[in-house]
Write a structure and sequence with these properties.
By secondary structure, this protein is an alpha+beta fold. The protein is built from 6 helices and 4 strands, in the order αααβαβαβαβ. The protein is globular and about 40 Å long.
Length: 183
């Protein structure tokens, strides 16, 4: 419990230190079939196509002043966890804070938090651990003002590995929560 409070205070401090966001012009999302500026059209990668489909690219540009470029906090939609843990590591506080600002600034947006684990452990244990991880991110977002109605959680356990393999390099990439914006 102390760890959750510490993380919440760390995130609140980050928000307070960032100051008031400047107002920006909100760009309308592209219509079906139109070309998105800076994209390579039909040959774009799946991640950019997904972000365009869910409206997190252009619609969030003006919401927080960070944009959804390849290096901004909103472009990062995965939070990684330590082995057998469901506490959010401090290095992911800026990602959670950026998504919280985006969601509070756009009450119509919804996000699904997909909890995942590595392949070690029983199926039942991994489903539970994935759920605890998704709930940890959910609580962190709600502590920063995101409405409960904007959040959904699901646990896939070890059923959807990001990386195949039986070594720490692969396992560390599979212990994660993915933030997926809904249409």
């Amino acid at each position: 419990m102390k760890r959750i409070v510490s993380i919440a205070l760390l995130m609140a401090g980050t928000v307070l230190l960032s100051g008031c966001p400047k107002k920006h012009n909100v760009m309308e999302p592209p219509t079906a079939g139109s070309q998105v500026p800076g994209s390579s059209g039909a040959t774009g990668d799946a991640a950019s196509a997904s972000s365009r489909a869910f409206g997190s690219d252009a619609a969030t540009q003006g919401a927080n002043g960070m944009g959804a470029d390849a290096t901004g906090p909103l472009a990062r939609k995965v939070i990684y966890f330590d082995f057998d843990k469901s506490e959010i590591k401090p290095e992911f506080a800026d990602i959670v804070a950026a998504h919280a600002r985006n969601l509070t600034g756009h009450p119509g947006l919804k996000i699904k938090l997909e909890g995942n684990t590595d392949g070690r452990g029983t199926r039942e244990y991994n489903i539970g651990l994935g759920e605890r991880r998704a709930q940890a991110v959910r609580r962190a977002l709600m502590l920063q003002g995101v409405a409960e109605s904007q959040l959904a959680t699901v646990s896939f356990g070890s059923e959807r590995p990001a990386v195949e393999g039986d070594d720490e390099a692969a396992w560390s990439q599979n212990r994660r929560v993915e933030l997926v914006y809904a249409p």
